[in-house]
């Protein structure tokens, strides 16, 4: 079995990788070969059949419909999404942090756990790009954000310091 260990940051930079379904497809093809008289993997097939129990024809038919008997099966790797359509976000505008940074900058700091361009962040926050750019530069100047160029755009993301500040601001002070 192949074991690959990457951090989340490593995986966001992957452009080509071994298919995550490679072993599943190889196993399915081996099981299909059993019926065709090939017995190279007979010991493995026997062990698998004992352990699989109820994984029989009905379950394998679905996989067979999706996997051709031989040849390449395309897998498409896409970059991590930058949008947050389905996510819920805690409101930072009423927090103590908003009192120090301002509502817009506190909300911006909360938004940037994923890398975003100025345009993407401005769209999500319903602000103009030039206005948001001023806020991004201010947060970057104090070390709460970092920026990196990717192609024609500059992506901003929260630094570890920014994350700690945000999490500490979310806690209530001890009474």
UniProtKB/TrEMBL annotation:
Gene3D superfamilies: Winged helix-like DNA-binding domain superfamily/Winged helix DNA-binding domain (1.10.10.10). GO terms for molecular function: DNA binding; DNA-binding transcription factor activity. Residues 92-171 form the HTH arsR-type domain. Keywords: DNA-binding, Transcription, Transcription regulation. InterPro entries: ArsR-like_HTH, HTH_ArsR_DNA-bd_dom, Metal_resp_trans_reg, WH-like_DNA-bd_sf, WH_DNA-bd_sf. The keyword Transcription regulation applies. This is HTH arsR-type domain-containing protein. It comes from Planotetraspora thailandica. The lineage of its organism: Bacteria, Bacillati, Actinomycetota, Actinomycetes, Streptosporangiales.
């Amino acid at each position: 079995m192949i074991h690959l260990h990457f951090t989340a940051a490593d995986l966001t930079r992957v452009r080509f990788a071994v298919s995550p379904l490679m072993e599943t497809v190889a196993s399915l093809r081996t099981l299909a070969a059993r019926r065709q008289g090939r017995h190279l993997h007979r010991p493995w097939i026997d062990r698998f059949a004992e352990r699989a129990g109820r994984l029989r024809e009905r379950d394998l038919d679905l996989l067979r419909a999706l996997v051709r008997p031989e040849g390449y099966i395309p897998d498409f790797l896409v970059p991590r999404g930058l949008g947050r359509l389905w996510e819920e976000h805690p409101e930072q505008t009423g927090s103590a942090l908003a009192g120090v940074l301002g509502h817009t900058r506190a909300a911006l700091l909360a938004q940037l756990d994923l890398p975003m361009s100025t345009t993407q962040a401005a769209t999500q926050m319903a602000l103009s790009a030039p206005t948001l750019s001023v806020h991004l530069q201010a947060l970057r100047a104090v070390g709460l954000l970092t920026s990196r160029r990717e192609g024609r755009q500059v992506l901003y993301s929260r630094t570890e310091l920014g994350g700690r500040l945000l999490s500490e601001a979310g806690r209530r002070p001890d009474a």
